[in-house]
Amino acid sequence: MTGAIVLRQATAVLGVLCILTTHACGRDHRPLRVSAAASLADVLPPVARAWRRRGGPEVAFNFDATPRLARQIRAGAPSDVVVSADVEWVDTLEHEGLVLERSRRRLLGNELVTVVPAARAGAMPRSAGDLAAPRFARIAIAGPNVPAGRYARAALRSAGALDRLAPRFIEADSVRSALAWAARAEVDAAIVYRTDALAERRVTLAFTFPESSHPPIVYEAAVVRRSAEPEAAADFIELCASDETRGIFERAGFRVLR
Amino acid sequence: MTEVGSAVRLSIEIALWCVVLGVAPALGLGWVLARRKFRGKSIVSMVVLAPLVLPPVVTGLVLLDLLGRAGTFGGALAAIGVEVPFTFAAAVIAAFVVGLPLYVMAARSAIEAVDPRYEEVSWTLGVTPWRTFWRVALPLALPGVAAGAVLVFARALGEFGATVVLAGNVEGETRTIALAVYHLLDAPRGGSATRILAATSLALSFAALVGYELLVRWQRRRLELHDAYER
């Protein structure tokens, strides 16, 4: 009888140990860790699948607003590749000696747009000036350190609308949070990338900001200096810049830079 | 620096609102859970405690689904011109819902710790149950309830997940200490402001915990005193 109890207890302990150890032992191959801007969350997974088909290791993504990725890398987070939504953050990381200078590669371009919730009726805004109408009481915009937020503020400033609209800003964590709020119709408009607008069916693209109204939107990739797999990391960036993946980016609405 | 001041003031205001708004539900639910036996009591208890174990972000999402413009109640509220998300009220609601379980639990155990015979004696003397609650049970349980209030205050200061989802990050409106610190981490030169906010936060939390400890001791002494009189 006691034997049965002991057996049951031993099984329970073993079960717990299994759960605790599967995470540690399940992966014998270290995945390639890619820290990428939040706006790339839909396009990089298909690239990773193409990479897997070529026999590359598994890819573990960390999608977040670029400044947060930079902070994580600064703090020594395990990461092999970083893909920033602007050049400035890669400059900063290079300046701090955190990425390999020679590995830097400008991959993609994007456009800045205003979206409105698809569910809401009313005339579509056609320019930054139209956003001054009282019905755009809440405008979602990424934070001032997030690339999308910087571009958006620059675009509104050159339209002369920044000061008037600033009190209506709902500041989002990343461009994707701003998009999500517009999709849920919790805000009246959001300033996001063109590719975000195309990826979300619950928003309507209202207008595109003129290219000249903000610094060029450039996605740049680099190999993290502390990477344990710098060759694999460089290969991954190479794949992102190759004709093989061109279609993935173009279908999503990115401009492929060469 | 004004940003630091506004974050600290907001945090304290929101936490105080939670304490005030929670008094009635905490006492009501605490008393019902401590003194009443009824079908479905464990379900009531589970619903009340749920925000304690749910990830706050999920609580925030549930609240947004209820109170957002497209939400169950939010649509009706928007029709009469009341919009909750991204306002000060939203920040209070988020912190309140996440903190309420602590309040109710503290009130419940404080009331449970009061010997029900005091209340029974009061009833036999012809005092109404309502008056008995106010004159007998509540005074005896008060320090415990107050300890719960302090705990809610402290929890509200720390609220992040539900707030960021329901209330966003609007300076002077919903950007509390926790949110300000989180966003200053991304700023290239947010270092000194972050440290001031972190230090303020530590001081406030520590003060709240000391208050909690003192109140709990007071509660224990008070009940011991009554038990001593009895003998």
Describe the structure.
- The complex is a heterodimer of chains A (258) and B (231).
- Chain A contains ten helices and eleven strands.
- Chain A is an alpha/beta fold and 258 residues long.
- Chain A folds into two domains: 28-109 and 217-256, D-Maltodextrin-Binding Protein, domain 2, CATH 3.40.190.10; 112-213, Periplasmic binding protein-like II (D-Maltodextrin-Binding Protein, domain 2), CATH 3.40.190.
- A six-stranded mixed beta sheet of chain A has the order 2-1-3-10-4-11.
- With 231 residues, chain B is an all-alpha fold.
- Chain B has a single domain, classed as MetI-like fold (Orthogonal Bundle).
- Chain B is 79% helix and 0% strand.
- Chain B has ten helices and no strands.
- The mean pLDDT of chain B is 90.
- Chain A binds chain B through residues 65, 67-68, 71, 92, 119, 138, 143-146, 169-173, 181, 184-187, and chain B through 64, 68-70, 85-86, 164, 168-171, 183, 185-188.
Number of helices of chain B: 10
Q: How does CATH name the architecture of the largest domain in chain A?
A: 3-Layer(aba) Sandwich
Kindly report how far apart the N and C termini of chain A lie.
74 Å
Q: Classify the oligomer.
A: heterodimer
Shape of chain B: globular
Helix content of chain A: 40-55%
Tell me the total number of β-strands of chain A: 11
Could you list the spans of chain A in which at least 5 consecutive residues all have pLDDT below 50? none
Whole-number mean pLDDT of chain B: 90
Reading side by side through the largest sheet of chain A, how are the strands ordered? 2-1-3-10-4-11
CATH superfamily of the largest domain in chain A: Periplasmic binding protein-like II
Question: What fraction of residues of chain B sit in β-strands?
Answer: under 5%
